[in-house]
Specification:
This protein is of the alpha+beta class. The chain has one domain: Roll (Chitinase A, domain 3), CATH 3.10.50.40. It is built from 2 helices and 9 strands; from the N terminus they run αβββββαββββ. The strands form 2 sheets. Strands 1, 2, 3, 4, 5, 6 and 9 form a 7-stranded antiparallel β-sheet that branches. A two-stranded antiparallel ribbon has the order 7-8. The N terminus is likely disordered.
Length: 182
Amino acid sequence: MRFIRRSSFLLVALLISSALLIQGCGDENNGPTGPDYSNVPEPYSMSNADTTYTKEGGVEIYVIEEGECPSGEEEFCTVTPRDQIGVKYTGRIFEEETIFESTFANDNDQPAIITNLTPNPTQQQPAQIEGFRRGLLGMKEGEKRIIIVPPALGYSDNRPGVGGIDLRDKTLRYDVELTGIQ
């Protein structure tokens, strides 16, 4: 009698385990997935820009919120090519609003640290997208801006894009907040 009870218990446990295993093996793709962009903030509104201007090469800048420099420290709180900066940003394909990268991906709230804003990087320092690099220069701490990058200063034929998204010949939009200059 004990053998039958123990066997029944093992049989039920085996059936439940098998059912759970089979349920976990559904038709869904359980392989690697792309970044989770569900918590990325909404795009900044271009109509809320305090200032707009165009930089060399057609990079458009929309200043949403001005940054501030302590009195007498303007040269130390404005981004230059030599600086290491902290930024929070989201890159989208302009017009489509498709996100291709974001510092907010996967519920992250930490800024990205960018160390190379020189136009001619060394082999140890990967190049930034040229239009993005130009758009960051001149920002002040705390500033929020939209940077519109024309295709000629975005991804080229030898750098098709990120995350499997083809960004060649696409106008790019970056919503950026400068969190600090180190």
